[in-house]
Amino acid sequence: MFEIAVRIRELTSSNLNNLVDRATNPEKMLKLLRLELEEAIIALSKDAAGAERAARDAVAKAGAHDDAATDWQAKAKLALANNRDDLARAALDEKDSASTAAADLRRAAKASEAECVELRRAAAELETKLAETRERLSAMSVATGGAAKPASASSKAASRVAATADRITVLEKRIDFAEAGANAETKAAALDQELAAMQREAKLDADLAALKKGLKKGK
Hints:
By secondary structure, the protein is mainly alpha-helical. 92% of the residues lie in helices and 0% in strands. It has helices at residues 2-13, 16-22, 26-81, 85-144, 153-218. The protein is elongated.
């Protein structure tokens, strides 16, 4: 995704005049740019549709977890009414899990919705660049009568080598960064997990106490 975002930024910010001035075969360069823009727009539209579906699914699943949380709350009250603190605590634990899952899903839905908006915005920017490229190509084709100078085999090979070298450099940097932070992330994750368990137990105690207090008031 990182490489895609970088490439989209490069495409939208590219200056056609500069590209044409630097190219040994401007018409072929513009045709390649047009193809890359078309492919990027298709990919962005597909990803946007996927993000939209993901948001809808997350909202629907969150609703189901809300229903489950309500059901577990009722079961916890029933268990307490029958002096089964153990069952009430277990039911409250399930209720808490369902509520947490619902909240997580709603956050995921918002993230997917934001992603969809961003993807469609990027696609619109590429559409503008594509129209500009097509217009430039059309004018160039009229001016040259459709003739284009073929690129040499050596220039093709050089371009492939340069592109491969760039990809390797990017991957190497990402690997170094990931390895540098791996140990720190593992330690932090273990600490966070232990603290989260402590917080969960404290919350269950508080929920159980509140439920007991509510039942006493209802009598």
